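If your schedule permits, I should be very grateful for your opinion on a structural question. Please examine both parts with care and let me know of anything in them that strikes you as inconsistent. The record follows directly beneath this note:
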Amino acid sequence: MIRILSILVGLFFTVALAWSLLTGLLNFELPHTVEHEFHEHPKELHLASDGAFGKFDRQQLQRGFQVYKEVCAACHSLRHVAFRDLAALGYNEAEVKAIAVGYQVDGIDPNTGEATTRVGMPTDYFPLAFPNDVAARAANNNAIPPDLSLMTKARHNGAAYVYSLLSGYQDPPAALPEDNRPGEGLYYNPYFANLNLAMAPPLNEGIVSFGDGTKSTVEQMSKDVAAFLVWTAEPKLEKRKQTGLPVLGFLLFATILGFLSYKSIWADKKKKKG
């Protein structure tokens, strides 16, 4: 009798606790803030690399790299990417060497052992945009521009976030409270978490001339550089998909084979036992 009573008491407290947690979750509301009200989710973006069968559009990746090189590289590093990796974008060996030569990278003077700079080689990685954080802050309104190598993996819905952010600069809406309006050196962008960015709008129509004749609108350049940053964050994306599909096929085949083996070997033995 005592055991049954203790079980009932324990069950009562368990149900009460579960009910309390459930009602708390149902009544929970995020705090209403100006940022929450005016912040917008990333715009819809479709890239050739999307989906299980998606593949990179090499021409778009080259356009995106051109946008990065001519616009973004002034402030943002790409430290996880080597020049030789650009061969995956469709550049030949001579073109990769020509790109590397256009950069100065850190080196050591073989005669004195002192730090110096030298012309880049295909085996080198893209150099940092600034020598240190102090220099980065001094040049960017006390903000440190993030490295872009893994940006589309570091942000939720990363490619769409990059595309929306670059193409989303606008004037603050009239309803935005005065305290939340961009101050000196800041720019309103509803796709950024706190609405105000220290980065000035980097793209203007025609700022880049694409060799394939594509019109360099802000929308187009934003899409192209977002596609390029998807590649920098996951350069093995295509190989992963190409490997994944055969593996799934093999697992499906193995499952069917295992089921048929079970039916032909063990089913009869179970009937005999029965």
